[in-house]
Amino acid sequence: MIEIRDLHVDYGKVSAVRGVSVTAHPGRVTLVLGANGAGKTTTLRTVAGLNAPTSGEILVDGKSVVGWPAHRILARGVSLVPEGRRVFSSLTVGENLKVGGLIASKKDREESMRRAFEMFPILEERQDGPAGLLSGGEQQMLAFGRSLMSQPSYILMDEPSMGLAPAVVDRVMDSVRAIADRGIGVLMVEQNAEAGMKIADDVVVVNRGESVYSGPVEEARKHSSVVSAFLGEA
Ligand code: ATP
Fold first, then answer.
1. Ligand 1, from 14, 15, 33: best to mutate by most atoms within 8 Å of Cβ?
2. N or C of the chain: less Cβ packing under 10 Å?
3. Going by C-beta distance under 8 Å and a sequence separation of 6 or more, which residues neighbour residue 171?
């Protein structure tokens, strides 16, 4: 599992994260809710090794990864699907997937590609076309497929529903569930709390850089701090 304990992250004098604790388990979707600027993206980026914590612990399957460079954390099995998808528009769909598998052997890459196509048949149909021509929902599937190419144990997802039409959001969330059902631990930041809670197992609420609630999704629905996170009260 991924254990984030009392994480603090500063940008110069700005304290972005000041006491976030989250645990993400294999096969489960842990949904991180919170208003704009609450520190959710910074938390994910820090776990992925793209920001350095000021203090706190990040353990991946019991091993501290604080201070590790991003590529080493990826090799340890933690992959980030960034906010805004960031697919390479001018590369083909197939090339985008290959980029995600650069750390794997050729044999593993072929196997991962086959599994990504099995999960997202549209990617196989469009594999020779430019990624920039995919719809928003399809680009999100590609971002998931690219992340799966490194055969991660955990995937960090930053607002996968962002900018997508409501009908597409549900399809994307179904894919998130399917990824967790393969045994992968998903730690997902989502502004769309309703959509996220439909498929999540556990919920964490972050308020002004601090985690203020964590619990199973059924319990979270009854809890007032989670309801105010719905409303975006920072
Ligand atoms: P959003 O939903 O808007 O992405 P968030 O919960 O993901 O919000 P963060 O993006 O982690 O929040 O930002 C947390 C705080 O850190 C905010 O106050 C933000 O303004 C600040 N911040 C984020 N990135 C930087 C940066 N590169 N330099 C300085 N301050 C930053």
1. 14
2. C
3. 137
Q: Which residue stretches of the chain have pLDDT < 50?
A: 234
Separation of alpha carbons 201 and 193, rounded Å: 13
Residue nearest to atom 28 of ligand 1 (CA): 11
Q: Is 207 in the pocket of ligand 1 (CB under 6 A)?
A: no
pTM over 0.95: no
Nearest CA to ligand 1 atom 18: 37
Which alpha helices (H) appear in the chain, and where do they start and end? 40-47, 70-75, 93-100, 106-119, 121-125, 136-148, 166-181, 193-199, 217-220, 224-230
Among 10, 33, 40, name the best residue to mutate to test ligand 1's pocket (greatest count of ligand atoms within 8 A of Cβ). Answer: 40
pLDDT at residue 227, as a whole number: 65
The pLDDT value recorded for residue 230 is: 61
CA of 39 from ligand 1 middle (Å) equals: 6
pLDDT of residue 105: 79
What ipTM describes this predicted complex?
A: 0.90
Quick check: CB of 36 below 6 Å from ligand 1? yes
